[in-house]
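Tokens in:
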């Protein structure tokens, strides 16, 4: 299984659009067994539309990523692709309290230039981290004042989890 996953991740990162599409589809059909490919799948959401669609399908059913993927996912928060940043935040949030080391990067992403959906997902992820997200209190309090009602509500919910 691990050898197959390795080959699928390599194909997902290929310059060959057909290979990427085939790999994304196969990973989507694997369900939670594709968890070790979480980072590559998040990156693939920034490629062509068909590959992105299959990568998103895989990510939706993936569950939490392996804990050791946290540094790579944290780095993806700064991606220029809104889809990549969104899915990085989603996967980080799925790690819940295990994502505590990513709190400073999440707080920075909340204040960075991003698509509104990315900001919303980052606020959600901070809420999933819970009390360990206290270091993002200032960023969340600022987000509460956003004109985006969904972002404001998600930030309020995250703050409530640690009494911020």
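Residues out:
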């Amino acid at each position: 299984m691990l050898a197959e996953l390795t080959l699928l991740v390599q194909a997902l990162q290929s310059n060959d659009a057909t290979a990427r599409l085939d790999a994304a589809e196969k990973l989507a059909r694997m369900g939670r067994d594709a968890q070790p490919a979480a980072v590559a799948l998040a990156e693939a959401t920034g490629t062509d539309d068909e590959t992105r669609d299959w990568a998103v399908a895989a990510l939706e059913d993936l569950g939490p990523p392996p804990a050791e993927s946290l540094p790579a996912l944290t780095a993806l928060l700064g991606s220029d692709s809104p889809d990549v940043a969104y899915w990085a935040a989603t996967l980080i949030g799925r790690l819940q309290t295990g994502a505590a080391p990513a709190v400073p990067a999440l707080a920075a992403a909340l204040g960075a230039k991003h698509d509104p959906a990315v900001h919303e997902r980052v606020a959600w992820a901070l809420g999933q981290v819970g009390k360990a997200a206290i270091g993002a209190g200032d960023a969340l309090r600022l987000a509460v004042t956003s004109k985006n009602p969904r972002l404001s509500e998600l930030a309020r919910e995250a703050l409530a989890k640690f009494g911020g």
